[in-house]
Design goal:
Blueprint (H helix, E strand, L loop, with lengths): L1 E6 L7 H15 L3 E6 L31 H10 L2 E9 L2 E2 L1 H11 L22 E8 L4 H6 L2 H16 E8 L18 H32 L1
Helix pairs in contact: 1-6
């Protein structure tokens, strides 16, 4: 049982990474072999629209043909049982690194032909991959729907589920952005209130991530 965790944040030990580490601990507790990958360490691009994966007679088998640092990561993902990808939300969207990964992971799997099996017409792979998405953001729970984050972020979950069979989301709201707010121009922020929110909510968020990792592994074992 293999579980892969991918950090789409440029920071390797802050909110998103901590959530992923907690999910990884849950997966390990459930008996999975775990691996953490930081996209910031890799040299790669998004889809370059070469369409090699769509040519007649191609031998890509659902794997992007580009040979760069992401290629072996994509290979390991397609061999895994569980995948959890995390990203902070920057200006209403996940990071560019996250987007590049999703392009390179999902587009080669998407079929343009009808396929041989009715239930696998949209993908080249027959196995299921239990997936999770973790988002960390400065927005509060109250503003999440007000600014349409639920609408903006939902398609990635849907596409992951369409391709791999299952995907769920864990959000962490109103996250702590700076180690010391007094060193930054943040006069519009009620730091005391933000601290109270974090003290109460952050342990719960980490627990939700832990439970996600554990649950996905347990689901993968049942298939």
């Amino acid at each position: 049982m293999k579980a892969i965790f991918i950090n789409g944040s440029p920071r390797k030990n802050k909110n998103t990474a901590q959530m992923l580490e907690s999910a990884m601990n849950g997966a390990q507790e459930a008996g999975a072999e775990v691996e953490m990958i930081h996209l910031q360490n890799l040299n790669f691009k998004g889809c370059v629209s070469c369409f090699a994966c769509k040519r007649k007679g191609n031998t890509c088998s659902g794997l992007c043909i580009q040979k760069d640092d992401l290629r072996p990561v994509l290979e390991r993902i397609l061999q895994a049982d569980v995948l959890v990808v995390g990203s902070p939300i920057y200006w209403s969207y996940p990071t560019g690194m996250f987007r590049n990964l999703i392009e390179r992971l999902l587009f080669p799997i998407l079929r343009y032909d009808k396929g041989e099996k009715p239930n696998t017409a949209s993908k080249y792979i027959d196995k299921q991959l239990k997936c999770g998405l973790i988002y960390t953001m400065n927005n509060t729970p109250e503003r999440y729907k007000l600014v349409h984050y639920d609408t903006i972020l939902e398609p990635d979950r849907q596409y992951m589920e369409m391709m791999f069979g299952h995907c769920e989301v864990v959000n962490a709201f109103n996250t702590w952005q700076f180690p010391d707010y007094s060193k930054f121009d943040t006069s519009a922020v009620d730091v005391a209130e933000k601290q109270r929110f974090r003290d109460n909510q952050w342990p719960q968020d980490l627990q939700k991530a832990y439970e996600l990792g554990k649950r996905l592994v347990e689901m993968a074992k049942e298939k």
